[in-house]
From TrEMBL:
EC number: 4.1.1.48
One GO BP: L-tryptophan biosynthetic process
Protein name (Swiss-Prot/TrEMBL): indole-3-glycerol-phosphate synthase
Reactions listed under catalytic activity: 1-(2-carboxyphenylamino)-1-deoxy-D-ribulose 5-phosphate + H(+) = (1S,2R)-1-C-(indol-3-yl)glycerol 3-phosphate + CO2 + H2O
A GO molecular function held by the record: phosphoribosylanthranilate isomerase activity
Uppermost EC category: lyase
């Protein structure tokens, strides 16, 4: 337990269960790295995957050993094991889980809190991701991938990117992805009497091309029930499931609840994850919005084949600072050229309140905007949209 500082004197240090896991993990990692990378015996590695990790993915990998898709799946499994190393190589600062175990330990009625550099999140995004990791691990136990897959594959989807393009052609203004957002960690509760279906219907009527529905409970007071309810209420706008995705399982889950698109955050996901998850989305007929915040993330995403939709977040998810010039900076010069060549649609995200804001990001090159706070806060979110654009954009 070297390097562990115990905050209060009454608190006791002990080796947590996760400490044991790490040791097991270490042994597994060692044996895998001895096999080299990439070209070694695939099935041997699959068997090892199954032996070392009783997860669903390993079972799926085993059942599809002869499928070319398996290569990617094994990669995904590897990403799980080598996550930190791969993430570091891609310049990712967000760690997927606390390196020294969760910060809280419950033993019977007692809570032990060990705090040290390793188990305290460095910023809000990291805190969200650590929480998501626990949440998804629990959800996956209740709904294994193979049962979920059937539900996801039986859903029919709407064309998210097509709707954005059609709206841009219709209005000559950036297509609106209107966000159904009750609260956020940076702004607190945005709307007290929050009726997600009513808001979604008002957005659609007022000219939104697509909707974004927050599904994270703890930090955004969203839910998958909201997503499902909006879909079932007959709203025709394609739906983006606004979730912190760290595991392919979540994509199938989102689809089974009615999503037409999902968000992948480049600050969180290594290239390998982005490639693999985009591939799954294509198989399921979902669009992928890949979110970047800085030049490095933009360059990583531009180097990945098959990306059709990139979001530039004006809000830094580590500090909450909003800076609209971010969109402009990331679209200047060579990057803008590549985006045009590849025919990628860029979505300006966050912190837009006025027609001037819209004009500013449109001049920078975006063809769509993702807006939550400024419209959801209005008594009539439909009127909020007209206010945001300075004109009625309803169809
Ligand atoms: O409410 P705003 O400032 O208009 O922002 C909307 C949207 O861009 C924001 O909610 C968002 C962008 N990327 C995210 C990733 C996770 C959670 C939320 C977000």
């Amino acid at each position: 337990m070297e390097g562990t500082s115990i905050k209060a004197s009454a608190k006791i240090s002990f080796l947590s269960t996760s400490g044991c896991n790490f040791r097991t993990n270490f042994i597994v990692r060692k044996s895998i790295s001895m096999e080299g990378n990439g070209k070694n015996n695939l099935s041997l590695r699959c068997i090892r995957a199954q032996q070392s990790d009783s997860s669903d993915e390993a079972a799926v990998i085993m059942s599809e050993v002869n499928d070319p898709e398996v290569v990617l799946k094994v990669k995904e499994w590897e990403v799980g094991k080598f996550q930190d190393e791969i993430a570091e190589r891609d310049g990712i600062r967000i760690r997927r889980r606390p390196p020294t175990g969760p910060p809280q330990h419950y033993v019977g009625p007692f809570e032990f809190r060990l705090q040290n550099e390793g188990n305290t999140p460095r910023n809000i995004l990291e805190e969200i991701i650590w929480h998501k990791h626990v949440e998804v691990t629990q959800l996956k136990e209740r709904r294994p991938l193979h049962t979920l897959k059937k539900a996801a594959e039986s859903m029919s989807g709407r064309d998210f990117i097509g709707a954005l393009k059609a709206s841009y052609l219709r209005t000559g203004l950036p297509a609106l992805i209107a966000e159904v957002k009750k609260a956020s960690p940076s702004r607190g509760v945005l709307k007290e009497n929050f009726d997600p279906v009513q808001i979604a219907q008002a957005y659609e009527k007022a000219g939104a091309a697509c909707l974004s529905v927050l599904t994270d409970k703890k930090y955004f007071q969203g839910s998958f029930e909201n997503l499902e309810a909006i879909r079932k209420a007959g709203v025709k706008c394609p739906l983006l499931c606004k979730e912190f995705i760290i595991d392919a399982w979540q994509i199938y889950y989102a689809r089974s609840k009615g999503a037409d698109a999902i968000l992948l955050i480049a600050a969180v996901l290594p290239d390998l994850d982005i490639k693999y998850m985009t591939k799954i989305c294509k198989l399921l007929g979902l669009a992928t919005l890949v979110e970047v915040h800085d030049e490095r993330e933009m360059d990583r995403v531009l180097a990945i084949d098959g990306i059709e939709l990139i979001g530039i977040n004006n809000r830094n998810l580590e500090t909450f600072k909003v800076d609209m010039s971010n969109t402009k900076r990331l679209l200047e010069g060579k990057r803008g050229e590549i985006i045009r060549q590849k025919d990628i649609i860029v979505v300006g995200e966050s912190g837009m309140f006025t027609p001037d804001d819209i004009a500013y990001v449109q001049a920078a090159g975006v063809k769509a905007v993702l807006v939550g706070e400024s419209i959801v806060k209005q008594d009539d979110p439909g009127k909020g949209i007209a206010g945001l654009f300075g004109q009625d954009i309803s169809p």
